[in-house]
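Hi Y.,

Following your request, here is the sequence exactly as I used it, all 252 residues.
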Amino acid sequence: MLLFTGVVSCTWEQMAPKIDCSTDPVQIELIESTDAECGASNGSFSVNATGGEAPYEFSSEAGTNTNGVFTGISAGSYAVIVTDAKGCSVELNVTIKNLSGVNLGEIVVNDSGCDTANGAIHVSVSGGAEPYSFSINGNPTQSSNVFTGLAPGDYDVSVKDQTGCEITQSVKVQSGVSFENSIKGIIENSCAVSGCHNGSVSPDLRSFSNIQSRANSIKSRTANGSMPRGSTLSQEQIDMIACWVDDGAKDN
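Below is the corresponding structure, written out as tokens. Let me know if you'd prefer a different format.
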């Protein structure tokens, strides 16, 4: 909890010490992959982890295991996350293609804005037999390869060719809130202030790494009004913090 008044000390309560994953970061690399026949689940891929602290756990849309080998999968995009014994993690995207059918190419995503639905997804396609049909989140198909009016969130984009061969990929639309332009000033003016988290009380919120590692707590505490103590954030500021955290608390 951030406390900042003229008479009450400033503390951060019930917070366990944070592990610094940057000192020995876990890393992941693709070892090999095998594309799948259209409509079949005969693709595979394997990844390897180094750094961090073993043992590792690997998870993706294809399941969870401890050896990084995924078999019996269909064409599509897989977000593979490896987590080490300390809880540090890193993500790698692996694409399994249709061997003789339609495939998704470059996907361009436009940010939505915070709490607005101005996002867009532009899809490029190759292979297979035209014409193509496009759909998002299982909704009715369309002939256009552009989806508009999207709020922040995860979307399953699918394309099907004339023969019925189909491929789906998960795409994330973000709000695009900038730490440098929007969040940094809120923290500096309301949280990392004299007598509080400006070095005299841990955590030091003048440090981006400390802010980033506690992003979820900052989001929940500003939302419930327990942070910052002694001042009030506007709803717009609270929403901006939430959008930035939901985007992945990036240094942008």
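Residues 1-9 have pLDDT under 50 and may be disordered.

Thanks again,
Q.
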